[in-house]
Specification:
The protein is of the alpha/beta class. It has a single domain, classed as Rossmann fold. About 35% of the residues lie in helices and about 25% in strands. It contains 8 helices and 10 strands. The protein has an 8-stranded mixed sheet with strand order 1-2-4-3-5-6-9-10, sandwiched between helices. Strands 7-8 form a two-stranded antiparallel ribbon. A hairpin with a 2-residue loop joins strand 7 and strand 8. The longest helix has 17 residues. The radius of gyration is 18 Å and the shape is globular. The two termini are about 30 Å apart.
């Protein structure tokens, strides 16, 4: 049965959806500009799992961060742990898609004592920025934070917003609809996205290739699962050198686009995840 929940974390509200299919504690983290509905198809198929899918800060029904705060990718880590603590989950599994998978990998690298396993959908590491460009990146962040005022797109209907999302994100209508319906709100006679426009701004710092190497070494030291979409964006494992660096990681390529967990691949994805968790339990 699906539950809608709200958590109070550090003075802000985080919304979530929960599927209690079993006792295995699983926190599910969605991608950039998506929300908890990203797991509406997959979560009910995850047998024996208690799946809590968060609307990360600035997304879905969750609060936006205050004006002085940022949306650097590691800013979500304390919020995730605050929610886990409220649930009484000292150790738990992470299921992440896209940006959510990167957040999950950072959480494991930083606090492996809290994470039993990672399941990453169509990405495993952030796009690196050379160390030599660090201050260029920082300058971009400062300029965009101070001077960019991004307006909200307005749509006459949910269906119009759905068509735009499908075109921009290269998603099918079936895959996009749950995310759009949760991520849009009517204001002053028109529809606009709930997501904080500041999510489009540059990050102050991005990881370098060296950071990524360390991150992959941390992940490869324990059994985790990476599922890639044939037409997706997670291309790390297509390169032989990357496969060599991730020898300890179980990975597979499935047919589908970046949001394959909302499409026909949802069932085989669920079967592979269930098998993976079952094997960990029997190890």
């Amino acid at each position: 049965m699906l539950e809608e929940l709200l958590f109070e974390v550090a003075g802000a509200r985080l919304a979530a959806r929960r599927w209690r299919n079993g006792p295995l504690p699983v926190l599910a983290l969605h991608g950039w500009l998506d929300n908890a509905a990203s797991f509406d198809v997959l979560a009910p198929l995850l047998a024996n799992a208690d799946v809590l899918a968060l609307d990360l800060s600035g997304h879905g029904l969750s609060d936006h961060r205050p004006a002085q705060a940022t949306y650097n990718i590691w800013d979500d880590l304390p919020d995730i742990l605050r929610v886990a603590d409220q649930l009484g989950w000292q150790r738990f599994h992470l299921l992440g898609h896209s940006r959510g998978a990167i957040i999950a990998s950072l959480m494991f690298a930083a606090l492996p004592e809290r994470i039993d396993s990672l399941v990453m959908l169509d990405v495993v590491q952030p796009q690196p920025v050379p160390i030599s460009d660090s201050f260029v990146q920082l300058g971009k962040f400062v300029r965009e934070t101070l001077y960019t005022r991004r307006g909200r797109a307005r749509y006459e209907s949910v269906e119009e917003a759905l068509r735009v999302r499908c075109k921009v994100a290269k998603m099918s209508e079936r895959a996009a609809r749950p995310i759009v319906e949760r991520g849009i709100v009517q204001r002053d006679g028109a529809w606009s996205w709930r997501a904080d426009p500041r999510l489009h701004l540059a990050s102050a710092v991005k990881l370098s290739e060296e950071h990524n190497r360390l991150l992959l070494e941390q992940i490869a030291a324990r059994p985790h699962l990476l599922l890639l979409a044939e037409q997706g964006v997670g291309r790390e494992m297509r390169d032989e050198a990357e496969r060599e660096r991730l020898q300890g990681l179980r990975w597979e390529m499935l047919d589908g686009s970046h949001h394959f967990h909302l499409e026909d691949a949802a069932l085989p994805i669920a079967e592979k995840i269930n098998d993976f968790w079952r094997a960990l339990d029997n190890a």
